[in-house]
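Exercise 7 asks you to align residues with tokens for two separate proteins.
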Amino acid sequence: MAGSAENEGIRVLDEYVCNAILAPKVPPADPNKQAVNEGLRLVEEFVIEAGSDSAAEGKADDQKRDGMLTELQRQRLEGMTRIGKTVLHKHKDGGGYRRMGIVEDEVYVMVNDYKHVIQKIKIECGAYWDGSQYAYRTGYYTYDAKRKRIVWGQYTQFLTEQEYKELLSKARAKGWAIF
């Protein structure tokens, strides 16, 4: 292969296949323990399809960066909800959690691979510190970096003026008493 880089301990056998060359101090593998790798874990999987169209690959990578989802991924993301679930806030001192209430309703807008939501949360008993029966939480769901799991966003939301208007209009259409 032209222009191959030199990597200590790795020998290029073919354009896509590599084999490790053991250092003198490393004992050979025990054939009875093949496929057992104690103490090792898969961190990243790298797959190359032979004969693939590099232009198509570039387009797929661009779609991932631009937040394009498959139809199934989009349906899963849109279906993600916390309605009926308890909202907990972590105590800053690390001493557990405080129950804030139950998600009674939510509205959302989809922006690329983000489901931006406003959750309507009903206190479980009594009222909040200011006498309110409801509190509202904004946030978003998205896929993790490998697009395997849907997670609650940990960063500040970013919506354009029009996207935020659409989200608020959905809450208003449901008759939420915040307007």
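Second protein for Exercise 7:
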Amino acid sequence: MNLFLRVLTAIVLLPVFIFCIHFGEFWFSILTVALGLLLADEIVSMGVGKKYAAKMIFVLPVAVLLAALVVFPGTYTSILGMWFVLFYFAVIFTFRPHAGLNDVGRVSLVVVVLMYAFLGIASLVCLRNGFGTSFIYLTLICTFGNDTFAYLFGRWLGKTRLYERVSQKKTWEGFIAGAIASVALPFGFIPLSNLFGVDIFSGLLVRDLLFVSVGISFLGPIGDLIESRVKRAFDLKDSGTLLPGHGGVFDRIDALLVTVPFTLGYAFFLRSLW
């Protein structure tokens, strides 16, 4: 049943993602803002609870940051925006001198995870605006392919735990299957997309596909483990319940928060060195 819900949810959401990515910056901005707000809401709910007043203290500056990002996309927006948010929380901390160390530690973790998530979303915007849709499609195919095949083969053949102290479900068998899928799927999509007269990797070379897919095969599982570690810190099983069969938004895009910045780094820095 859980697998059926995962597939059904993916079938419903996939056309929405493709539409927003392919049909211009406006719809893509709507998608990224929605993802960012849902992600921020989940992270704050995990760390400080679901009381509206408490959540607004955290979610409001993130909303401002996301709005600034889509109106003024670019590196400077991300850097100045992060400074603004950290300054905002530093002021709150300064004027609450009686806050206990446990409270400060929990709130600090929430802020760090919020900034971690925001930089992942910001990288998505910078990748789309700076390099078009080809790298976006490549990253999504490799990341979700890695996650899907790791999940399926982990359930079917998984026996050896990958890192049991953080995640009891992830296995080396699933990791290997996911890594193979990450590298193979982009090359499988090329003839498939050509059948429909669409070049989803337009402008990319074979070496681009290989470098990004191999990197994602290792980094995708690390993104999953980071999110699992955050959930363990907050003593939770799932980040939320919004997506049937998946859990929350954080559960679904945890790997993307690592793989998208990696692809952006490759496109911006390393590709020009080849």
